[in-house]
Every structure is written in structure tokens, then in C-alpha cells.
Amino acid sequence: MPRMLDVSDDVRAEIGDEEADRLLAGESAPGSYDCTSCRTPGDCEQERTSTVLFIGEETAVLAFAHAGCLPSQVVKVTEEQLQGAVRSINADHARPEPQRAAPEQAAPEQAVLGVTSGLILIAGELHPALVVEPTAPIARPGTTGGQGDDFLPLLIEQGFMPVIELTTAPGVLHGWSVLLAMGQLHAVLQPGTNGGRPVAWWQAHQPLQVTEGWRTAANKHQQVLMFAAPVGSIGRQPREDLLRDALDKAAANGQLVAAALPLAGT
């Protein structure tokens, strides 16, 4: 049976026509694989499959994903990220939620952000969520700072909506997305300038581990809810019930914005 494999132009340009043709002919692609996004089994002879090329400074790794999870694409990561992903690709990442990434440098506002993942119950259904909180007030680009915190106004200008209470899931913000690859959270992407390809608004220095339950919910909904609050509004909450309480309090105080972000490529 012909292999239902997709090799994008970007991937072909990196691996060369000869290797791309070998993949499409079934000479170098595995029949079965573990999806690099959702970590569940796939079969490129039975279902549409994407080739995903991870490129570090010195190493490149070709992986496979369900076409419904990720499109065929090139993902540039640090060499440290790539080596860590290769070591852990078959490991069990299950840990108690929520998981928190170390604060990272974000573009274009150059804000130092803390990102927490967790499952949030809304209207009787569990949703995968990311909670973003800066470690300091955010100044509007081009200003000298010290004039208040513009973090929420900047996000509202990008299309995020204020949340008063968490009774319904926020609407989808098209153009933004969440990159989940190799079973780990890599980045939050925003639209590129002048219609160009998306760029990282936040990128993990080391991929953020998420639980199997979080990955399952993300692939079920094909989107992730992102909540953002000013510094000091949420804090480092060790449990999901405390995280939810902090979100409810921030919403009641008018200090929370949110949007549903599609998984990258969907």
C-alpha cells in the first residue's frame, strides 16, 4: 500500500530531493511510529503522516507525526533541546501537574515570562491551559518603563480578551498558536510581520514537560487555552486547584486576559 506521507517543501529543501524521494517511496520511512506531538502510535501506510525535521546547531532529527497533529515542517531548536529530546523521546514524562517553565526571554517585548501548564475545568470539561505571568511589570516597547504595567493592554491589542469569570472557554485567536512537538511544549507563536511565517512570542529555553493528560486534552481540543495576568497576580501554585483559585481571583479583580490558541499547523 502506498505510504501516506507528506514531505513539505521546507523539509525537502533541508534533506534534499534524493532523501525526500526515498521517504515517499517508503525506502527510509518507518511503517509505524510514535507521533512526535501526541506520543501515540501511528502508521504511515494507514493514515496521513507528516515528516517533521528538528534542526539544532549541529544536529538534525527527522521525526513523524499524525497529519492531524502537526503539518510537515522544519522546527529550529537549540542543540541542547534537540539532544534532550532525543534522549527522552521514548521516556515517560508523566509528572504531577501543574508544570512550570523557567522564566524565559520573550519577543518582541523582551519580557521575562513564567509559564505554567495545567488542566482547567470549564463548564464540566477539562481544557489544557497555559498561564503566563511576568516576573516584573512590562513596559510598552519604546518607553523607558516605570510608568505602570502594559502587559495586559499589549495582549488585548493583539486580540486577547479580558476575562471576568471562568464560566466559558475563551474564543479562538487566529494567527497565534502553540507548538507542541516531541510530546513537549516548545513555544507560543504569534503572527509574523506583513503576513510572514509565525514567530516565537515565547520560546522555552528547555522544552516544558507536560503530562499525558495535558497532551491528550490538547490533541482532543486541537487548541490550548492561554491565560495571562500581571506580575504578582497568580504566583507559583503547587497544585491545579490552587492555580484555578488564583485564576478566579485574578479574573474577579480584572487582571486576567485569555484566548484559545490552536496547536501549531492545525
Characterize the structure shown.
- The protein is α+β, with helices and mostly antiparallel strands.
- The chain folds into 2 domains: 84 residues, no CATH class; 164 residues, no CATH class.
- The protein has 6 helices and 15 strands.
- The chain has a 6-stranded mixed sheet, sandwiched between helices. Strands 1, 4, 5 and 6 form a 4-stranded mixed sheet that branches. Strands 11-12-13 form a 3-stranded antiparallel sheet, with helices on one face.
- Strand 8 and strand 9 form a beta hairpin.
- The longest helix has 13 residues.
- The protein is globular and about 60 Å long.
- It starts with a strand and ends with a strand.
- About 9% of the residues have low confidence.
Which keywords apply here?
globular, 15 strands, six-stranded mixed beta sheet, four-stranded mixed beta sheet, alpha+beta, 21% helix
List the helices and strands and how they pair.
Layout lengths: L4 E2 L2 H7 L1 H8 L7 E3 L6 E3 L5 E7 L4 E7 L6 E4 L2 H10 L10 E7 L6 E11 L2 E10 L16 H8 L2 E2 L14 E5 L2 E7 L8 E11 L2 H10 L1 E6 L11 H13 L4 E6 L4
Parallel strand pairs: 1-4, 4-6, 9-14
Antiparallel strand pairs: 2-3, 4-5, 7-8, 8-9, 10-15, 11-12, 12-13, 14-15
